[in-house]
Amino acid sequence: MNFRILPLLAFSASSALAGDEDLAKLVTPTSSPSPWRIGGGYAQILGLKAEFKGLGAYNNPNTLQPLGSGLNRDYDNGFVRLDSSNNSGGQTWNWSYANNAQYNAAGTGSIDFSITNSLANAQTDEDGAAQPGFEFFALYDMGAAGFSGRGNRPATWGFRAGLQYARIDLNNTDQLSTGLTTTTDRFDLSGAIPPLAPYTGSFAGPGPLLGDTPTRSTLVAGSALVNGSRDLDVDMTMLNLGSYLEIPLTEKLALLTEAGLSLGVANGSYDFSSSTAITGLGTQSTSGSNSSTEVLPGAYLGLGASYQITDEWAILSSARYQYLRSYDLSANGSQASLPFNSSYVISLGAVFSFWGTSRPQLRWKLRSASNDPDSLEEVSMGGRVLLHFRPWIPSR
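^ that's the sequence the OP posted. Answer follows.
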């Protein structure tokens, strides 16, 4: 005769419930981490350098005239003009020179007249200190990356979006120098001996005659002192979109690597004032101002570390190389550039992790009935064993 196994249970005392209070805790919904994390903090830009060029302009009031005869010509050290005879015979007595060094006795004699201009090629760099700013970012966890970090904890990967703002203010007052170019026109005296300088003829004449058709040469030499100030102010907003990889190092410490694309919006202004002093000619001042807004594409690559303080809060510190297209401004012949080919962002902030809820499930684990009187079965909820029982199998 066969007997069915009776569903009578003998509970072991070692697994008895402590009471209704513990049971209430077990049936309370438990929390699980959300894939979303958000954060923010201080983020400063390092490695910026402003470049200022096109400084030291000097606009000579005397303008070079084309080669040929019958023209009024004014120079830094004299003039050659039409006389009352309208320069009959290609000569004029309406001329003036400032110093004896202009006279050349060789051949039939000649007098040199010159006009000097600045090349306006003074330039300087201004290394920027840490430019303060802040950033906000969001991280979305996509799950396991396929390998584990320290302690056999899985590495994870995900996407990162960040918005950063920085105020960039770079000023420079260095004393500079600019190159000079001198154009010299030589006029023939046809054997005449000029009066000692300074000498000035007249329109009506008469006086020593000077040929009115010059020969011309140009020499780039000498320098002029440039003093002044240059100010570049930029409000920089950067949007970063990319991915990250998080590798656990300990239970609370993790290493993060990140990379992605950037889009910067630069709203800035450039102001300068400059004075250029040329020996023998005097000092001339120039100034300029301009502003513009530009969109600057780029990319970033970073490395950071996070430390988990609680289930919700962590500290994140990172350093990333931040490349953007150069921001350029021009004002009255001078240029200011802000390249981002050597810029870095150092940040320190807090990260908040969102948590969801999950309902615990009552699990009845029942192994196949066994004739082993020592076998134990269990009832568990939410991963915690509530009780053990020993199935009772009646004898035949």
